[in-house]
Amino acid sequence: MMDRRAFLAFIPAIGFGAKAFAAETYAVTHTDAEWRKLLSPAQYAVLRQSGTESPFSSPLLNEHRKGVFACAGCQQDAYSSETKFESGTGWPSFWKPLDHAVVETQDRSFGMLRTAVSCSRCGGHLGHVFDDGPKPTGLRYCMNGVAMTFTPAKTV
After folding, report:
1. Which domain range does residue 95 map to?
2. 122 an active-site residue?
């Protein structure tokens, strides 16, 4: 009989767990040891292991200045503040990414089918996209704030 700990350890092996990065090729690559040095433990857990931060824990949730949200792994710009909206979910949400900034893949973790969103430059997991967002796209890109940085727009 398999106990809970053994089952949870088994999940990645059957495709229900962390994202496999080895088969992907990205412009920015590092070894696992290098990623661990470059990222905080929380960033590593989300960006490299497809984790999820706790809801309402990100300072970027309440970031309302004009600017750009970028991948914390490689600093590629991913979302404009112009597409950010208050979803009430506890994670920074956007209705559209910047062109060519993200890739979407099927995520079958935890026995569900969702669409995962990753950085197109380094493959870092950013969050998921859902079809319950506002117009004009009707999409909600629900992102982990720890997986992003914010750069305010320059004012003249």
Report:
1. 4-152
2. no
